[in-house]
Amino acid sequence: METPLYSTHNQSVYEPSEDSFLFLDALEKDLKLIKNVKPTICLEIGVGSGIITTALSKHLGSSNSYFIGTDINPQAGLACYETFRLNQLANSPQIVLTDLIESLSYRLRSNVDLIVFNPPYVPTEDSEIESDDLLTKSWAGGINGRRVIDRFCSSVSQVLATNGLLYLLLSKENQPDEVIEILKEYNINLDEIVIERKCRNEHLLILRFKKKASS
Description:
This protein is α/β, with parallel strands linked by helices and 215 residues long. The protein contains seven helices and seven strands, in the order H-H-E-H-E-H-E-E-H-H-E-H-E-E. Helix 1 packs parallel to helix 3.
C-alpha cells in the first residue's frame, strides 16, 4: 500500500503506524464476513492518510460499494486523494471535511452498512484536544483518551444501518467495557473482539459491533 510519505501534507497528517496496521489486519481477518454483508455505503471517520479506505476499496471493489471518508483536517483530504492516486483506485472515495459525521448525519441517516474508526485515543490533558496543531488533534484523546470516542458513540447510531457493522479501535486505557455499554444503549452491540495486540506501551483492540433492530 503506497502513501505520500514525503508529501508536505504529512506535516499535519497522521502517518500510518502500528494502530493503522492493526486495523488493516483486523479488516483482512474479517474480509469474508464483510463481503457477505455486501456493504453499499462504507464510511471511515477520521480518514487521515486514507490507507484504510484504500484497502477496503481494493478488497470490496468500487462498483458495488460507495466509499466516504471524513476528517476535520483539510490536509488529510489532500493526502487521501494522493494515496488513492498512488494506489490507482478506479473511483476515488469521497472525502468530506467535517467533525466526525456532523455534516452527514441527516443525509446518511440509517444508511451506512460499514463504519470504521481509528479515533484519537491517547490519554492526554483535555487542553490538547483544543490544540491548533492538527497533528496533535489526530491522536490526543483527553482524559482516559475518551473525549472524542464518547462524542462518536452518541452520534454513530444516527447513520449506522440496522445489521450494519462498526469496527472501532480502542486502547485498554480507554476502558473498553464502558464504551461497549455506552454503544449498547444505542442498540449497537459487541459482536467480537476481532484482534488485540500490544504495541510498544499500548494494548490495542479492534472491536466489531453490530446494530440490531429497535425493539
